[in-house]
């Protein structure tokens, strides 16, 4: 099994692809497969969240491109900015990962949230696409109170 423990920021071209949905890209320990079927073990620093376009350095020296896999999503659009802001507020209040675009919000498919969005007046569409939610206000990482009372706490996503 190929071992990957490091993010790569160098200039070398990628020679392999690792396609993962967003949930898998939030795991720092994962057994999975490259696009060609080769087994891979990810052992990244805890709290690492991979994004489509990131690159990893495998133990054998190969550079592996991370590809955001298409997944089932909901896209919400509203009649005006105020209504869209209201929808965003209610999703944020539920700590839902949200991808923001020009006039739309995307979330992972969830029938309960879809009902809520429709109830708030949003026009909701089902689609399949890569999911790249917002990094959040504290994009530098996840912190815990024991590291210092003055450090910000965030929940799941960086």
UniProtKB/TrEMBL annotation:
What are the annotated GO cellular component locations? cytoplasm
Task: Identify the SMART domains for this entry.
Answer: UreE_N (SM00988)
Can you say where in the cell this protein is located? Cytoplasm
Q: State where it is primarily located.
A: cytoplasm
Q: Which Pfam families match?
A: UreE_C (PF05194), UreE_N (PF02814)
Q: Which UniProt keywords apply?
A: Chaperone, Cytoplasm, Nickel
Q: Which residues form the UreE urease accessory N-terminal domain?
A: 2-64
Q: Answer whether the UniProt record assigns the keyword NAD to this protein.
A: no
The reply to whether Chaperone figures as a keyword in the UniProt entry is yes
GO biological process: any one? Answer: protein-containing complex assembly
The superkingdom listed in its UniProt entry is Bacteria
Q: Which molecular function term from Gene Ontology is one that the record holds?
A: nickel cation binding
User: InterPro entries per the record?
Assistant: UreE, UreE_C_dom, UreE_N, UreE_N_sf
NCBIfam families xrefs: PRK13261.1-1
Q: So what family is this one in?
A: Belongs to the UreE family.
Q: What does this protein do?
A: Involved in urease metallocenter assembly. Binds nickel. Probably functions as a nickel donor during metallocenter assembly.
The name under which this protein is listed is Urease accessory protein UreE
Q: What is the lineage of its organism?
A: Bacteria, Pseudomonadati, Pseudomonadota, Betaproteobacteria, Rhodocyclales
